[in-house]
């Protein structure tokens, strides 16, 4: 690890009591580095004669298109030989689409000039750790002393050439890995620079600011919420910080994975970009969930425990099985992931995180003073762990309480309209507690000129139970920006009415329709993030759900409020807020949230702090 030094002002006098990390470059190690230090046989050997089989494979690589290379990378085609992998990396990186890179990508000569300027002819020189690094730690993997010295030099040169790169904790590991397969320092510098310069947002490689890094962490959290059900509830129930737990996700890959695993991930990452990292981290989290479920009581810190698990992942899974598991996860398109990433970035900016600042503290939600007549603090932590990450940044605000605002649906509408999203929580006379997360402003019910009720909302809606058991029900899609449901088959809303008609309340005899026309807004987002429970799919079998499948999310008028309308209502409330009904619902693949018909003991609606501002921001695009 680098030494810690007291910061000195330019005049040489002591400045403020701030310590910075320093890196020492020792040129005395350079005799170990030759122009072919990354090659197995060196520059004087015809490797095709020594290794004819890898040589044939390399010719196949040169003749293959991008899709073929993706398949080869996933299958470990060039993993049989260090030299073959080095040549494959060179071919892949040098063929990254130049039109998606910045105007000028530094070449080998740029590195030589930078190195001469920064290190000169000195045998030993000391430099401050680049600002973009989290700390001075550099994964060694299989590098020798000379290799570690070269990594330090490359990292310092990258910091000098890319001054706007203010936060990039994965770069030390990435440089270290690529140097294993580079001809020399200049080639490694060039290769990493190509990845840094790549500008296509739908296939990005490296986050370069704290803002984008945190937005990626939140995006991973949203994916984990869908694909690894149960882990969020587990961590939230222990009162540990979910936001901080997910902030480590990319370091599981670029700091904690053993070398043989990390390079197999690198094989596909260079071809497929950031999306692969999401897949691998989700697979690791899924494995961890199985491992930790039997020893939850013994885990004091989930972040540390997860780090140790990844470091020893070989005990639980081979690298081939890990990648197979990763690519069996039905995940969104790059374009859809980018929409989610941008929504999370907007929320962080509204939280005060700026583009230009470096490391910043993101204030976590404070539930210590939380008070409710329906749910406990722990139960509210679980709900907040279930909702999308960009909303979970903000504190809950109570908008409606039946004891204070009365048993009247019109009063509920009046109190909650203009707020998006909201959480509806109900306690029955039988002490059952359940509810719904509604992603769209209930004012939307007024915006459609059609006879009868009109469904609206997005796939981020879900329903849940808290007592007697905790469970969240949500279909495997999420329409982040879209307020209007996609075209649906008409459904008669009399199913719930059949159980309540004799009581002459909640007469659901009106026809429930949906708006006509498929949304053409480019922000429309459908994410098939997980296969239905009980019907696991392989990567080849994974199919994206059709737009018309189960998207009747919310409907309401002065006489009723309905959540879920496919196959049955997940929740139906009457105008007097005295009673309601819950049944099997295909919209969320949900069981009845209670015993069926229920009498309401208490009801609360919670909003998100700054939710009006959030709503306007996300839907003004």
Automatic annotation (TrEMBL):
The TLDc domain, residue ranges: 373-609
SUPFAM superfamilies from the UniProt entry: Ypt/Rab-GAP domain of gyp1p
Transmembrane segments: none
Keywords carried by this UniProt record: Cytoplasmic vesicle, Membrane, Synapse
Chief place where the protein resides: membrane
Topology of this chain in the membrane: Peripheral membrane protein
Subcellular location: Cytoplasmic vesicle membrane; Endomembrane system; Synapse
Top-level taxon in the UniProt lineage: Eukaryota
Gene Ontology CC entries for this record: cytoplasmic vesicle membrane; endomembrane system; synapse
Protein role: May act as a GTPase-activating protein for Rab family protein(s). Involved in neuronal projections development, probably through a negative modulation of ARF6 function. Involved in the regulation of synaptic vesicle trafficking.
PANTHER family: NUCLEOLAR PROTEIN 7/ESTROGEN RECEPTOR COACTIVATOR-RELATED, TBC1 DOMAIN FAMILY MEMBER 24
Subunit structure: Interacts with ARF6.
Protein name: TBC1 domain family member 24
């Amino acid at each position: 690890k680098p030494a810690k030094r007291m910061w000195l002002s330019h005049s040489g006098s002591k400045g403020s009591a701030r310590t910075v990390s320093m890196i020492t470059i020792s040129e005395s190690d350079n005799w170990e580095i030759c122009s072919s230090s990354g090659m197995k046989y060196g520059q004087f050997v015809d490797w095709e004669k020594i290794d004819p089989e890898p040589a044939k494979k390399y010719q196949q690589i040169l003749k293959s298109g991008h899709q073929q290379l993706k398949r080869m990378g996933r299958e470990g085609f060039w993993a049989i030989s260090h030299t073959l992998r080095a040549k494959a990396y060179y071919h892949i990186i040098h063929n990254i689409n130049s039109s998606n890179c910045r105007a000028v990508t530094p070449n080998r000569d740029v590195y030589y000039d930078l190195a001469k300027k920064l290190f000169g002819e000195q045998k030993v020189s000391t430099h401050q750790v680049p600002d973009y690094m989290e700390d001075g730690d550099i994964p060694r993997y299989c590098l020798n002393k000379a290799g570690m010295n070269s990594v330090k030099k490359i990292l310092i040169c990258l910091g000098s050439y890319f001054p706007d790169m203010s936060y990039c904790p994965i770069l030390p590991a990435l440089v270290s890995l690529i140097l294993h397969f580079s001809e020399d320092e200049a080639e490694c510098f060039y290769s990493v620079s190509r990845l840094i310069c790549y500008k296509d947002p739908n296939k990005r490689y490296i986050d370069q600011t704290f803002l984008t890094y945190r937005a990626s962490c939140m995006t991973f959290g949203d994916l984990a919420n869908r694909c690894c059900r149960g882990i969020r509830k587990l961590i939230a129930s222990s009162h540990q910080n979910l936001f901080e737990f997910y902030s480590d996700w990319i370091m599981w890959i670029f700091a904690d994975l053993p070398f043989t695993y990390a390079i197999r991930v690198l094989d596909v990452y260079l071809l497929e970009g950031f999306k692969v990292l999401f897949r691998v981290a989700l697979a690791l989290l899924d494995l961890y969930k199985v491992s930790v479920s039997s020893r939850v009581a013994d885990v004091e810190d989930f972040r540390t425990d997860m780090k140790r698990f990844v470091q020893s992942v070989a005990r639980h899974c081979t690298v081939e099985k890990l990648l197979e598991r990763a690519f069996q996860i039905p995940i969104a398109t790059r374009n859809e992931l980018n929409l989610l990433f941008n929504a999370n970035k907007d929320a962080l900016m509204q939280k005060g995180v700026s583009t230009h600042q470096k490391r910043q503290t993101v204030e976590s939600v404070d539930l210590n003073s939380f008070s409710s007549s329906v749910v406990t603090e722990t139960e509210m932590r679980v709900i907040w762990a279930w909702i999308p990450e960009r909303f979970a940044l903000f504190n809950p605000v109570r908008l409606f309480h039946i004891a204070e605002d009365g048993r009247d649906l019109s009063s509920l509408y009046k109190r909650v309209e203009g707020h998006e999203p909201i959480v509806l929580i109900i306690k029955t006379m039988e002490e059952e507690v359940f509810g719904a997360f509604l992603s769209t402003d209930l004012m939307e019910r007024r915006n459609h000129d059609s006879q009868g009720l009109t469904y609206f909302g997005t796939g981020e809606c879900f329903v849940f139970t808290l007592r007697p058991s905790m469970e969240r029900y949500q279909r495997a899609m999420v329409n982040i920006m879209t307020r209007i449901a996609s075209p649906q088959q008409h459904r008669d809303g009399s199913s719930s009415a059949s159980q309540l008609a004799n009581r002459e309340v909640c007469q659901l005899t009106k026809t429930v329709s949906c708006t006509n026309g498929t949304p053409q807004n480019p922000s429309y987002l459908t994410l098939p993030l997980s296969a239905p429970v009980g019907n696991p799919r392989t990567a080849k079998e994974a199919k994206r759900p059709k737009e018309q499948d189960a998207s009747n999310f919310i409907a309401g008028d002065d006489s009723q409020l309905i959540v879920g309308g496919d196959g049955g209502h997940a929740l139906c409330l009457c105008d007097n807020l005295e009673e309601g009904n819950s049944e099997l619902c295909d919209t969320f693949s949900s069981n009845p949230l209670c015993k069926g018909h229920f009498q309401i003991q208490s009801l609360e609606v919670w909003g998100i702090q700054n939710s009006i501002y959030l709503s306007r921001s996300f839907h003004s695009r």
